[in-house]
Hints:
- The chain is mainly α.
- Helix content is about 50%, strand content about 10%.
- The chain folds into two domains: about 1-110, no CATH class; about 110-200, no CATH class.
- It has a three-stranded parallel β-sheet, with helices on one face. Strands 2-3 form a two-stranded antiparallel sheet.
- The radius of gyration is 22 Å and the shape is globular.
- The two termini are about 30 Å apart.
Amino acid sequence: MGSIIFQCLILVIDLCIFIYFFTFYRKAKKSPVYYFHILLWTMAGVYAFSLLISGWFQQIEEMSVRLMAASNICLFFSFLILYFQNVNSDKLILRVGSLFFVFLTLYNIKDPGNYLENKNKIKPQMAKFSHKKYLYNDEKNKVTTTIYYFPIIDKTLKYPHTNNQKGKLKESIAGTINPQIKWLKYDTVQDRSKVLYTSQLKL
């Protein structure tokens, strides 16, 4: 419930930011570089759409922050041009940018998993499973609880972080190494010789 409330809060903030951005995008027609803004929006849209389509053929999280960065940069660049054409002060941009920088830094520090280290463990094992067509996480019942300690208030928080679950980690890394393998939500394939189970991988 706490996670859902937090995600809803982030959604509300995102919607507010989008509405604020849109008020400046509407002023683009009056800009002397209007067609440059059109170019930026087109590049952002084509990239985002292409990324979404590629998600159907590869095991990637197409809406992740890192993959969407190229599209977001185009939109932010367009916004910044319009912002400084209509607003004299840059204090708001500095405050919001600093807030997000601190938030994202803390958000990433809380889960310091080493992706490359885990990938180096999984990659040698994938060679013997090259004939597998499907991938299924059969370790969903094995829950790893992450303990976060807050020294100032001397309290601990136990949280089953998604990125620290063994089965989920193996599934993500195996899908990265072999993008052609298809993830299964349910274990419904009758020919089990075609399925790679995460329990077969050692991490």
